[in-house]
User: What shape does this take?
Amino acid sequence: MELNRRTVIAGAAAAGLAATTLGAGSAGAAPGGRKPVREPFGKLADGTTIHRWSLENGGTRLKVLDWGGVVQRLEIPDRHGRHANVSLGFDTIDDYVAKTPYFGALIGRYGNRIGKGRFTLDGRSHQLSVNDGVNSLHGGKQGFDKHVWDVEPFTEGPDVGLHLYYTSVDGEMGYPGTLRTKVTYTLTRHGEWRIDYEATTDRATVVNLTSHVYWNLGGEGSGTIEDHELRIAASRYTPTDAGLIPTGELARVAGTPFDFRRAKPIGRDIRAGHEQQVQAKGYDHNWVLDKGVTAKPEHIATLRDPRSGRTLKIATDQPGLQFYSGNFLDGTLTGTGGHTYRQGDALCLETQHFPDSPNHPAFPSTVLRPGRTYRTTTIHTFGT
Ligand code: BGC
Assistant: This one.
């Protein structure tokens, strides 16, 4: 099927995902927030115009591209009410197309790595696109971050938001099944940013969607996040091999630099020399959340910047959290504020199923079958 705006929406509607929000009139006035507005952001090489949507509610300002569902800016106030953009990003579409740090992007079909880009499902083996040494990272060479999404604005009571649609055809990047995906970004009147992910398939497949915002609560380009205090409600994590593929072990964090059960500055143990840190050049691991998979999102992590007072609380229904301390930022990328980004200038907190789950039967399953709907929610609550 040729994918264009009409067929993607028709496909989404046929899959029962589109609900009530499509079409004209969906962007009415919101009592609590500002109606989402759209402006051109740039053009792809083939002439396609990429748009940027601006949303505001409860003190939070969000700018989102229809390219990769990218959060291009996210502004929140500090303890004095001064806003700063706390998310790393680029100013031009060319940078988003050419470079691959996944700044602010939606990640699919599979967040993080699948070892050798290979897995077997129902007796059939699948070879995925490989883009990280021998492994497949964040969906392969052209993951969900490198596609145009169809975006529909909505207002619902005091909430404002965007529905984003993308249909990934059978065989794309090696994955079986046509996957129809709907992601909803909502800004609530309290300034929370909520992400709801939904997907259906027509053949058994694996799915693990997430968001790849790089946080610096002091403001993007303001320097290191090593002073930020982090708490993660996890007693175990998944150690990896040299290619950052989980070994399968669920190791205890107690007595190691991986213990964030009580809030501590990220920099406190980052140079402890633990072999897992040496291998990953810092933190780049999946924490096994104590709560496991839950029916509803539960609060699992808090990030706090003592200088600005800004805090971020994350709630999710997912079983894992990838904490990546920006290890591979090497000073070669220049961001929205005109500063180059260096190692540790931001961190990612990606709610997810465990990396390489399709090759680890003991990990919670990431298999999606026809007739079922993949649903997961992550909520970001900002404060001071
Ligand atoms: C991964 C890192 C990877 C980064 C890409 C993170 O989610 O855990 O290993 O380098 O994404 O920017």
